[in-house]
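A quick aside before the break. I want you to see a complete sequence-to-structure record at least once, exactly as it would be stored in a machine-readable document. Don't worry about memorizing anything.
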Amino acid sequence: MFFLKPKLIKNNKKSIADLLFKDVSPEQWDQDHLTKANLDYSIDSVRLVNEYAERILQTEFGQQLLKEHSEKLITRIGAYLGEVIKNHKDGHYRWFEFNSVKANTIHLNEYEQSVKDESVLYSKKLDHALCPIYEVKQYFDGKPNYNHFLAYVEQAIKN
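That is the input. The structure line, written in tokens, reads:
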């Protein structure tokens, strides 16, 4: 029993991702663009999510949202990106609680939890983790690893 790893804890983020179009601010742009029809979990829909993130950074209303609801916004956008990736990865990836994955693989050694209750996409079969919530946090902190979310999503799907 000495070599048993801790159990992975599943943590589905689909319902959190859905909040991008189910719980929309009263801002007209958000009402017009953040709809179920537009946010259909396609790769192309990531462009709209990126535009939304830019608006958050560049508008007074967006800055206020970010100040008051930073973790919620980061988690929602990260969950959405993760669902897009997951839908295009042939069923190999599932959402798991960050710390349970970190205890089971070396692939998260360089990462620290970026938001409370963070989850990552992890493939047990491939022993590979993807961290879309972390990538969104980096973006909003002004330290993005990618020029835009679409570049991250495309690379995550390809690799």
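Two observations worth writing down. Residues 14-90+132-158 form one domain. The helical segments are 14-22, 28-33, 45-58, 60-87, 98-102, 132-140, 149-158. We'll return to this after the break.
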